[in-house]
Design a protein that fits this description.
12 helices; elongated; 7-stranded parallel β-sheet; 15% strand; Rossmann fold; 2 domains; alpha/beta; single chain; 5-stranded parallel β-sheet
Length: 327
């Protein structure tokens, strides 16, 4: 009796947790990419031939070249991320191929890191470590290394979706005063009441926020939005945190704002470019805390994302709506 499985699924990255792959095995033959990115594109182009679905990861772009190599039987694609910048979305749409993503699985981990960056920047973790490293620990002055209080502060959000609201939920325990947010559409009244939140225009967000958290996608409208003009409208005691996309911030202008103490500090998990060169001028500053785009990087998050991506693919193969469609 034949044991041939009806579908072939390409796992286009070496780091997909086995828990997610296991979900596919009952119905699918697994095609696993073995080479690490960015040198695995030739292998992907070879192994995707005849595949019915793909779980896509990494920075390489899933584009027409890869879709052509797969063939017309390709029925479903899912990423393991919230963003879909590594997929040529118009090309998939043109071919009628459903695309899944996994933003909800990343929310908790990114929110946790956001609070960590906020505290680290406000309380001068980077500068403090450098004081220790350079034997400049000051024991004689009471006003040494004073930071910014979270308690009774106004926390602003540029973007107030799942991640922004998860951050606000965590900050409630710090006894913040209120939340301001700038988005295209107003959130529900229930959410506003839960977080003592108010929708404001961008100018008000800049002027009144003690902490300003960017949790927005990159679009033509948000590209470079946080520039010298914006920083000049912020409080000198303000702390900026970016967990959205690096290009939303004009990094040269941010450097000048931090160096001149126009704003107090910044915490960044995203930057431009990525990876950030070790000799980048931003890293010379004491008042910036940088993490290498690891907001999602917890074991549980990766497993949950792999599981959801696999279920997205299975639904797509069955001709059913994906659990977490990207469009």
């Amino acid at each position: 009796m034949s044991t041939t499985k009806p579908f072939k699924v390409l796992i286009a990255h070496t780091d997909v947790p086995p828990e997610g792959i296991e979900i596919l095995k009952e119905q699918c033959e697994i095609l696993q990419v073995m080479n690490e990115p960015p040198k695995n594109r030739p292998e992907i182009l070879e192994k995707i031939k005849g595949a019915h679905a793909v779980i896509w990861g990494g920075r390489d772009i899933l584009n027409a070249e890869i879709l052509d190599a797969a063939g017309p039987q390709l029925k479903a694609v899912s990423t393991m991320s919230s963003g879909i910048n590594n997929v040529d979305v118009p090309e998939l749409r043109k071919r009628g191929i459903p695309l899944g993503s996994t933003p909800a699985m990343l929310t908790v981990a990114v929110a946790d890191l956001t609070v960590g960056l906020l505290i680290a920047a406000a309380r001068r973790f980077q500068e403090g470590r450098r004081k220790i490293d350079s034997d400049k620990w000051d024991k004689d002055h009471l006003n040494w290394m004073l930071g910014q209080d979270i308690r009774d502060s106004t926390v602003g959000f540029y973007g107030f979706g799942g991640i922004g609201q998860a951050v606000a939920k965590r900050l409630m325990g710090f006894e913040i005063e209120c939340v301001l947010y700038t988005t295209r559409n107003r959130v529900s009244q229930d959410i506003e009441e839960q977080f003592n939140a108010k929708k404001v225009d961008f100018e008000t967000l800049l002027a009144e926020s003690d902490f300003l958290i960017i949790a927005s996608p990159l679009t033509k409208d948000t590209l470079g939005l946080f520039n010298a003009t914006a920083f000049n409208k912020m409080k000198e005691t303000a702390v900026l945190v970016n967990v959205g996309r690096g290009k939303i911030v004009n990094q040269d202008d941010l450097y000048e704002a931090l160096k001149s103490n126009r704003i107090f500090a910044a915490g960044l998990d995203v930057m431009d470019p990525e990876p950030l060169p070790s000799n980048d001028k931003l890293l010379t500053l004491d008042n910036v805390v940088v993490t290498p785009h690891v907001g999602y990087a917890t074991r549980r998050t990766r497993v949950d994302a792999a599981n959801l991506a696999s279920r997205n693919v299975l639904r797509g193969l069955a001709g059913e709506p994906m659990l977490s469609p990207a469009y």
